[in-house]
Structure formats: C-alpha cells, structure tokens
Description:
The structure holds two protein chains of two kinds. By secondary structure, chain A is mainly alpha-helical. Chain A is about 70% helix and about 0% strand. Chain B has helices at about 5-25, 35-40, 45-70, 80-95, 100-110, 115-139.
Amino acid sequence: MNKIFIALLSGIIFGLGLSLSQMTNPNKVIDFLDIFGNWDPSLAFVMMGALAVTFISFRFVLKRPEPIFEEGFHQSKRTDIDKSLLIGAAIFGAGWAMSGYCPGPAVASLGAGNFEALIMVLSIYTGFFSQKWFSRKIFNA
Amino acid sequence: MENFTPLSALLGGALIGLSATILLLFNGRMAGISGIMNGLFNSPKDERNWRLTFLCGLIIGAIIFQTLSPDFFAPRQGYPLWLVAVGGFLVGIGTRLGNGCTSGHGICGIASLSIRSIFATLTFMGAGMITVYIIRHLL
C-alpha cells in the first residue's frame, strides 16, 4: 500500500513538472531540436533543473543500504556500449522528433483529452510489442 | 528565441527531479517512463499495480495543472497524425532496444553517472536534431 501511494505521489509530481515546463507541448520539444531554425533552448533547462536535483539527491539515496519500502534498488549495472543501445537511442530520437512526444508527455497529455496523445501512446505500445521481431531481423539475435 | 521560457523550464525540471528522487528513495525504482509503460503488460502481476498507479498519477498531475491554468494547454492543431503514429512506433521500438528514454537515460541514468545513459542521451538528442533538420529544412 505504501509503495502504491508513493507511485501515485511521484506520478502526480512528474505530471505537474512536465506540464509546468511545457514538455507536453510537442511544438516546444521540436523547437528545441531545431537548432538551425528558431531555436528554443527550454528543454535543456528542464534537464538542468531535473539534474540539479537528482545529481545531489541520488548521491544520498544510493548511499543507503536499501530504499525505505523496498528491498534493494532496481538499477541497471550494465556499462557496455553496444549496438542495440546506440541504434535504439537513434531510432527513439528520430521518433521523438517526428512526433514531438517522448513517453512521459505522451501519457500525461492523455489527461488533456488530447487525441494526438492517444495515437502516440497506442503507437508506442505497438512499437514495444514489435521490438522482439525487429531485433531478430536486424541483429539476427 | 522568443519562445524561450527558462524559469518555468527549470522549475518544472526540478519537480521532475523531485519525483524521481521520491520514487528511488522510497520504492527503489528509477523513474524511466518507457520502462514503466513497458512493464505494465510485461512484468509479473505484483509489479503491475505500482506502474499503473504511477502512470495514472502522471495523467492526474497534468489534469491538476490544466485545471489551475487552462490556457496553458492548447493541443496542437493540424499536425499530420500519420507522423505522430510513425513517430510513436519508432519511440516504442527505440526505447526497448536502447533500454530507456528521456527520463530513464537523460535524468535518472545521467544522475547515476551511467556511461550507457550518457551515450544514449547524446545519441537520441543528435538523432532528434538531424530528423527535425530534415523535416523542417530539407523536405
């Protein structure tokens, strides 16, 4: 129950942050990526604002033996830079730029009754479910 | 740069950082939205509830904000929906292949000094900039 409450609280704060910073506005996201056009650096400031908090807080949190309501931290220990990481990130970047939505703002914008966001979320899930097939084709793995 | 909004961007970003801190401190989870979304259908049953709750919270947060300042949310008009659909599909495939998105790699991963996240963030930012250049300035 405690963990569910934390998930709700954390989700609400995240949604407020995305809205206040206007990351739910796809034009603003695309304007950030448009460095050769009428550039809007706001998204970089969103990341700086978030990292200013997490850079400090994560140091303290991860020094704890374990989280408050859970046994152990769920954290990736991988350090290898493989093909799948870089190709995946490049595909994600292209899709992000085409649509103007990354996953968080797409979900949050569902609350605004935004039809685009609904299409976006459904397409993201279609992508999730297609990824295994896609990986086999590309990497023969 | 007349649309530049540094103050609300910094404050909104700080809220996102606070959210990620709370989720990690109490539940030991990274606030990576693509991973949370994927696990909604793709993880053991007892894993699904907190994910669904977090995603509902995300929607509730946006609704609260919209209620407080209704003129903030003007949904985009006239953008080709097929471009959103193709983009969404690529976001889905790309974030699974690359194990994360803007939040998981860009905020949580970089704050954890993960070398993978730093490379992923530089790569998706670069790919995004090239894609926008092609769509807006070449086509």
